[in-house]
Amino acid sequence: MSFKSTASKHQAQTTVSKLFANILPNHTIGNDEDKQEKLSSTQLLSNQLKQSSVPLKKVKKKTNAKIKKINDSNTKFKKFVKYNIIKSREEHTVEEQKYLKKLVKRNASQIKNLSHIDNMQIEEELSDVRASLIDKIGKKENKRLRKRKLTSAKNSKFDDFDNKVKRGFISVPGLTPGLAPIDYNESDSE
Questions:
Q1: Which of 14, 65, 140, 177 is the most exposed place for a label (fewest CB within 10 A)?
Q2: Overall pTM > 0.85
Q3: SS3 for 3?
Q4: Residues 83 and 98 in one domain
Q5: Any alpha helices (H) in the chain, and if so which ranges?
Q6: What is the number of domains present in the chain?
Q7: Is 48 helix (H, G, I), strand (E, B) or coil?
């Protein structure tokens, strides 16, 4: 069989030898040094690129991990600064209150997930925080009473409207005597 180049001849030989290696158990492919000498320049270049690409992946993973660590530390620092700025103010906007509630929920869930606390001081602080939260929750009951008063005021407005309709001060849309059917009696329908 005639080949146009040594590279195509080598490629055909390697495919045949790989085929025999898969079929025949004792067949060996040959020396790697002989293959290196018979390879064309493009094949040598592609082999070098394949070999160098493996460490590049590891380097990329390391750099990505470093970048991720830096970004995480930056976001933590920004959150800490934002919290300190909000904490220093006496009056908070609606967005700031939402942010603080979100922080409280997140921190409460993290504390709840802790299984055991070794340090006694931390445990005492945690119990103090729990007690203060319970006190704050107890104060919210007064707000609910105010809400009940508001709903009763709304109900009184509806009652006033009903009284005015009964007295005839306000008319309610519906059938008027001029629009009722001529032969219609209420006693007939019952």
A1: 177
A2: no
A3: coil
A4: no
A5: 6-23, 32-38, 41-88, 94-113, 120-167, 186-189
A6: 2
A7: helix
